[in-house]
Structure formats: structure tokens, C-alpha cells
Amino acid sequence: MNDERPRPRPVDAPRPERQIAFRTGISAESRAAALLIAKGFRILARRWRSPVGEIDIIARRRHLLLFVEVKARETLDDAAWSVTERQRFRIVAAAEAWLARNADDRIRDIRFDAILVAPGRIPRHIPAAFDASL
Predict the structure, then answer these.
(1) Model-level pTM?
(2) Confidence of residue 5 (pLDDT cuts 50, 70, 90)
(3) Between the chain's N and C termini, which has fewer beta carbons within 10 Å?
(4) Can you spell out the DSSP letters for 112-129?
(5) Please, which residues bridge with residue 58 across strands?
(6) What does the alpha-carbon distance between residue 134 and residue 128 come to, in Å, rounded to a whole number?
(7) Are the CB atoms for 112 and 98 separated by under 8 Å?
């Protein structure tokens, strides 16, 4: 007997391209974190989320605190152009939320950096990629 009743819709699984993008992002963030560690930074948080935005990496070296946006694209130039103004606003807002929850009088300097990642290339660290005075 052929049962033609509608079946419940399965839970939507992420699309394959979204799964690939997620894995690529995680890998890029790991490479970026390794680069920062090699430069003497301590990773305080990865993929830190707040209601106003997400910060890929928060790192510290002595009195310097970094909020880092990691971008992975096919080329480093494509990655450089992919940090939009809207993303910068959200990163700054998230950084303000992080600082409100994690006050530390030892911090003297705060910087917003970017690390660009492309296949087969060494990640490119761009110190002070943007500032909070957007």
C-alpha cells in the first residue's frame, strides 16, 4: 500500500556551503591565533559573542589588548576588502561590551587588528586595521 500522507519536514541541516565556510573560518581563526601566540600574545578569548556583535580573537601582550577580526578568502587582497563598515561598528560595540565586563587597569593600549588568511599563504597581520572612532 502506498502511503501518500505528508511527512514531517526534517530539521534543516546547514547547507553544505555554510558548513564549508564554518570549517574554513575555524581553521583561519586557529592559524591567526597561532600567529599571535608566536608574536608573544596570550589568547584571552576566541569567537567571543555579545548581543551587539562577535569578536574573532581577543589577545593580550603586556599592556596591549587586541580585538582581532579574522578574514579568510581566496586571496589576501579579497580578505582585506571584506571587512565592511557595518562589521567594524559591530566589532567596536562588542569590544566595548567586553571591556565593560572585563575591566583591567593594567591595559594601557587597545587596538583593532585584522588577520587575513588565504590558502597556501602565510596569514597577514594588519595592526591597527581600523579604530574605534568610526
Answers:
(1) 0.83
(2) low
(3) N
(4) EEEEEE-TTS--EEEEEE
(5) 45, 67
(6) 13
(7) no
Q: The cell 582585506 sits on which residue?
A: 80
30 grid coordinates: 586557529
CA–CA separation, 105 and 115 (whole Å): 27
For residue 37, give Cα distances in angstroms to 44, 63, 84: 11, 16, 26
Q: Is the pLDDT of residue 93 over 90?
A: yes
Count of domains for the chain:
1
> What domain range includes position 52?
16-130
In a domain, residue 78? The reply is yes
The cell for 20 is 564549508
Rounded CA separation 46/13 (Å): 25
